[in-house]
Amino acid sequence: MMAWLAQNLAPLMFLGLVFFLLYGFPVAFALGASGLFFGLIGIELGLLSPVFFQALPLRIFGIIQNETLLAVPFFTLMGLVLERSGMAEDLLDTIGQLFGSVRGGLAFAVIFVGALLAATTGVVAASVISMGLISLPIMLRYGYDRKLASGVIAASGTLAQIIPPSLVLIVLADQLGKSVGDLYKGAFIPAFALVGLYVLYVIGLTILRPKDLPALPPEARTIRENDGSSGTRSVAVLAAIAITVGIVAGQHYNEMLAWLVGGEPKEQPVDETVVVATTFAALIAFVIALINRAFRLGLLSRMAERVTFVLIPPLALIFLVLGTIFLGVATPTEGGAMGAVGAMLLAWARKRLDRALLIQALKGTTTLSSFVMFILIGSTLFNLTFQGVGGSHWVQHLLTQLPGGQVGFLIFAALFVFVLAFFLDYFELAFIVIPLLGPAASALGIDLIWFGVLIAMVMQTSFMHPPFGFALFFLRSVAPAGEYVDAVTGKKFRGVSTAEIYWGAIPFLVLQLVMVGLLIVFPSLVTMSFSKAEKIDLEKIEIPVGDQGWGAEGAADPGRGAAGGESSW
Question: What is the domain partition of the chain in residue ranges?
Fold first, then answer.
């Protein structure tokens, strides 16, 4: 019996963790309890030394000293300050007005603002709840289909899972032992490809079911010129100028970088070039708008000025943070700190920064950061014991022997994460599952950055699957369930049922699964963001040897002082 228990302690440990979780214990305490309990059993069975637990304090202090994880509270604070300073309301109102005359304009605005909120908050709950409170009443007021409105809001909020600077990507990078900047680069193109799929789906609905996505009525479009025009032509001209400048900057980015740092121009990664080009485009638009307002030139319409001053500052902040990380100028922690300071400056410039806002943002940041740290400490206790009893070898052997090789492993990993996400948060998944799957992926020759982006995309799908999707629960908490009176029109509207929220999520869940499939079929969507590794010819490597080597005349004597005098000993 004891011999059987010693041989199977690793799988029993995993089952014990499942038991603790199903019993209702908090994840952090379940992980820590499993690690300590089975660690004591391992000591009694002779699998572990009694001095094993002496390594625990060092592991815990190592977590506290991890500078990479320090980026989590910085990016959280950045997002909460921007979100609670009224940025989301202003963005949605402005973009909604801009696309108001187009069928599905509000849906496009929700997708765009959701992506921007995802890049600023990095937290799914904050994005979904904010968009639900702000946009859902507006979409219901103007006759949008309830299932479509719910699906668009929930799906746009889940973009916080994958769009850099995502918090989960920081955690995945730490668990996989990879650079956060590399994971950001890898996720950049797939994230915006998914946004493109959302937009294409809405465009398709405007053709097939136009009544479900009406345009805003004329009386709802309040941003007008004195002659009654919308002013969108001015927006188009300003956008054309900014895009032209961005394209030119992107085309000559290699030469500009070579001029700044010195040396020959080299091909730069695609995502880095896109970030730099977008930053140049945003800055030129903002400068033009500032000059127009300062000198009262009257070259831009009210709509153009509104779009520029509402959209450009948070967009420029995001790309400035990402740009410094991609360029290697700043670490993710430094970039997050810069983003937090920039968010407070933007809130101050909008006269929205006060003590109450800071207290709320700091409380939210502390809560989330403490949640992450406690789970990480618990997972460290669990993983230390699990590795000590040979669990990593057991899992690696099990996963590498799956039929189908790499493809079989990837299918299993995707399904495994998808099912576990019914019950676990994405942080919990990252700390529990990745230490199990990562070594097996590495043993099979799978690129860990690509694997990390794939897992992040699968985690995103977990937020949308009925009836367990967390994003659906978040939306349910703020969506009116029964009949309510609209605050603007004073009319009574029917609420949104839970079934409508679930049915609305399914098309976007399918789009997310399509994106997962595209990542598996086309790994270049991730890997194309990286520069090609330079080939090194080992035969051409020369190591210069100086004339003053050991034994040479005049060489330094290890027994003499630095100036060749007597020994200092």
Answer: 231-330
